[in-house]
């Protein structure tokens, strides 16, 4: 049997917490990247997804690092208790939540714009066919 010190167990648990927060952030980052990609496809007729791929990769995989690393540092300095599973200081928790809420808000705006574009395209298509139900 391998003996694990309490410090190693806590460090592993904290690493798992940081990785979990990164994965949650990456989920929201990729959701935003997909929404922006779809918006670009609908708006620009000559849109090349390959040209924007590095930006989408950076948004999906890189953006979460920008708030997870500061969260880990602040957590270590100001709320370094247990496995970091509890969030007793709201300011520390907002380091993670604020970027996610911003991604959700931007994605909502993109979603509304996509719906408006699709509705306009459907109406234009129906009017061009002479469909009297639209008029």
TrEMBL record:
Keyword vocabulary terms for this entry: Membrane, Transmembrane, Transmembrane helix
GO terms, biological process: adenylate cyclase-modulating G protein-coupled receptor signaling pathway; cell surface receptor signaling pathway
GO MF entries: G protein-coupled peptide receptor activity; gastric inhibitory peptide receptor activity; peptide hormone binding
The UniProt record lists the keyword Transmembrane helix: yes
Domain G-protein coupled receptors family 2 profile: 1-135
Membrane topology, as annotated: Multi-pass membrane protein
InterPro entries reported for this sequence: GPCR_2, GPCR_2-like_7TM, GPCR_2_secretin-like
Residue ranges crossing the lipid bilayer per the database entry: 28-48, 55-78, 90-115
Keyword Repeat: no
Matching Gene3D superfamilies: Rhodopsin 7-helix transmembrane proteins
Subcellular location: Membrane
One term under GO cellular component: plasma membrane
Superkingdom of source: Eukaryota
Pfam families in the record: 7tm_2
Chief subcellular location: membrane
Protein name stated in the entry: GIPR protein
Organism: Nyctibius grandis
């Amino acid at each position: 049997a391998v003996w694990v010190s309490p410090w190693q167990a806590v460090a592993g648990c904290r690493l798992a917490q940081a990785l979990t927060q990164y994965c949650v952030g990456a989920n929201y980052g990729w959701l935003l990247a997909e929404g922006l990609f779809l918006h670009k496809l609908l708006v620009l007729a000559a849109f090349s997804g390959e040209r924007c791929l590095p930006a989408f990769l950076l948004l999906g995989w890189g953006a979460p690092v920008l708030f997870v690393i500061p969260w880990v540092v602040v957590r270590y300095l100001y709320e370094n208790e247990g496995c970091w599973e509890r969030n007793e200081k709201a300011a520390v928790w907002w380091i993670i939540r604020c970027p996610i809420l911003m991604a959700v808000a931007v994605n909502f705006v993109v979603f509304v714009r996509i719906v408006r574009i699709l509705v306009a395209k459907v109406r234009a298509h129906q009017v061009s066919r002479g469909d009297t139900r639209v008029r």
